[in-house]
Design goal:
The protein has 1 helix and 16 strands. With about 270 residues, the chain is mainly beta. It has a single domain, classed as Porin, CATH 2.40.160.
């Protein structure tokens, strides 16, 4: 009976969190999940267009622990491969545990045009494990992204995840895959201080509003502060550390009902 109750709890949290930010989409190292216009960091499954700005190959891994429940954790990995013609990205994420889990595999193609704007498309395969039938069911879905640099200080980003509302149907239930549209801005008060905003709309959920500041204190250390709001206001705090080609980020989000959510990311950027 314990696996049954654990699965019920997982499904309950997945439905609750969907109004905040979908568990299907891995989080990013941008504070308060304001990654859609973040021109400096590509985050897998968030905005494929940002990959177009990548100049060096990089690999990153991320672990998100929701509310100290390992059953709600998300593990993801991403690889960026820039070229003169087209930048390519490969990413994979896993959410859940043995009795219920979801996986995403994505291939991203993006290009920057004179470093003024970038376009990207990502092809994903989403699969979920259904314990009732002891089987996997999956569906293909696209992501479309756009990033525009209006000036050296102001950027605009747009992203759509599963815009055609693909779903998975089984003998017992229809698994609805979230369809999310995001619009965000990035403004640099100075090269060291960036302000980002973002609006997300999942077609069957409330709007999510987010904002955050990132300040480069030293050459190798930055601090981040922000918040997002859907049904509840969630404050966010983070910091980053860079040494050589390695970059480490840790963000914390304090939900007023569910508790602490932590997101840790490590990236390594290769030399050209």
């Amino acid at each position: 009976m314990k696996p049954f109750f654990s699965t019920v709890i997982i499904l309950f949290f997945c439905q609750f969190l969907q109004a905040q930010i979908s568990t299907v989409i891995p989080s990013s190292n941008a504070i308060a999940q304001t990654s859609v216009a973040d021109s400096r960091n590509w985050a897998a499954f968030n905005n494929p267009a940002i990959l177009g700005y990548a100049e060096k190959p990089e690999i990153g891994i991320e672990y998100e622990n929701r509310f100290f429940l390992s059953e709600l954790s998300t593990k993801s990995v991403q690889l960026a491969l820039p070229s003169n013609l087209l930048n390519t990205g490969i990413s994979f994420s896993h959410f859940g545990y043995s009795f219920y889990h979801e996986m995403l595999l994505g291939i991203d193609f993006a290009r920057s045009f004179s470093n003024k704007f970038a376009m990207g498309v990502q092809f994903d395969y989403y699969t979920a494990y259904f314990a009732a039938s002891n089987s996997y069911r999956g569906a293909f879905l696209p992501q479309i992204g756009l990033s525009v640099k209006f000036s050296s200080k102001f950027n605009l980003g747009f992203h759509s995840f599963n815009p055609f509302q693909s779903n998975i149907k089984t003998e017992f239930v229809t698994k609805r895959i979230p369809s999310v549209f995001s619009l965000g801005t990035e403004y640099f008060f100075s090269p060291e201080l960036a302000w980002r905003t973002q609006i997300d709309k999942e077609v069957s959920s409330n709007y999510r509003f987010a904002t955050g500041f990132e300040y480069q204190m030293l050459q190798s250390v930055n601090v981040k502060l922000g918040a997002y709001c859907s049904d509840y206001l969630v404050p966010c705090l983070g910091f980053g550390f860079k040494t050589g080609s390695f970059q480490f980020n840790l963000n914390c989000e304090m939900h007023p009902l569910l508790g602490l959510n932590t997101i840790a990311t490590i990236k390594y950027r290769f030399k050209k």
